[in-house]
Structures are given as structure tokens and as C-alpha cells.
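Please, why this fold?
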Amino acid sequence: MATKFEACQSVEIPVPYQPIPIKHYLRQPERLVNALVDSSRIEQLSPEVFRLKMRPLSFISLSIQPIVDMRVWALADGTILLESVGSEIRGIEYINQRFQLDLKGHLSSYDREGNTYLKGIANLEVKVELPPLFSFTPKSILEATGNGLLKSVLVTIKQRLLHQLLVDYRHWVESHSLDSYPDDSNDFTVLKPE
């Protein structure tokens, strides 16, 4: 039974003042990935592509573990873009062979009335053909359960963004010289995380 699940989550976060604007921090997408996902569940495949091993999830009577390859990159203005470039489901080969995950999102900073904010959105869509045993479950129940599961994944990511990202940004500012980041310039120096 072919089924599609969808979820969308937006975020707007006030950013406490730091002497180096957050747009410079955002030009280092690997820091964002490490702030959002526990480092034990990340494998960097290339400068822009990261393999994320999500925690096992329960869907009705199934236990599955999604693995998602994400491309994460920064534009010159500090906007971070992300998109899934590959995925698999560990736990049930039938579903893995009939599974497609599509995640797209962006995060950027903007100023309003002298304050800085982060604003972003993530859209997650999963297309899957469920095993025949689910043919007796009403499609509305399957879709509500699947959509709820995807929403919970995005809410978890949002919670980490709200807390961990700003903590990492503050630590990053404390470890860098202000001379490399003039506030009124678009020029920047990319520093690797320590």
C-alpha cells in the first residue's frame, strides 16, 4: 500500500547579542549539523554531505531506524540550505526497498528593530509502500500516525536548534578574534571548528 506522510516546521528565534554577528557563524554548516545532532550519530561524507543516523522510531507495530544523507551548505549571506540526497530504513528490508525521504529546509538571520533573529523552515515528506499486513488498517489512521511521527522528528530538531545552536554560537564567538569579523563587511574568513 503506497502511502505519503508529510510534516512542516518553522522556527523564529531571537538571538542574544554577541560581538560577532551570527551570519558569520552560519557560514560554517558543519557547526550547525553538530549542534543539531549528537556527534555520535553523524558521519561526514564530504565537506557538504553528512550521514545522520536517527534514533530508532516506532510506527504502529514496527521499529525502524532512518539513515539520512544530508547536503548542508551556506550561501554568501550566511543562509544555510539543507536537502536530503539519500536515505535508507534499517530494520525492515521490505520498507527500505520501497522508501523515499525528501527533506528540504533553510535557516537565515535577519535584523528587526535593532535585534537579530534566526528564521527557518523544514519540509519533510516520506513516500513508502507499507507491507501487506497494513492493508487492513484504515489509511486515515496510517496517515495520521505517520504525519505525527514526522512532526515529532521535526519538533525534536527544532528544540535542539532553540537551545544547542545558541550555546554553540556563544562558545564559537568566545573562541575567535573580533578582528576577523567586521560587523559592516560581507567579507569573511572561514575558520574550521576546533
Residues 184-194 have pLDDT under 50 and may be disordered. Helices lie at 22-26, 29-36, 93-96, 139-174.
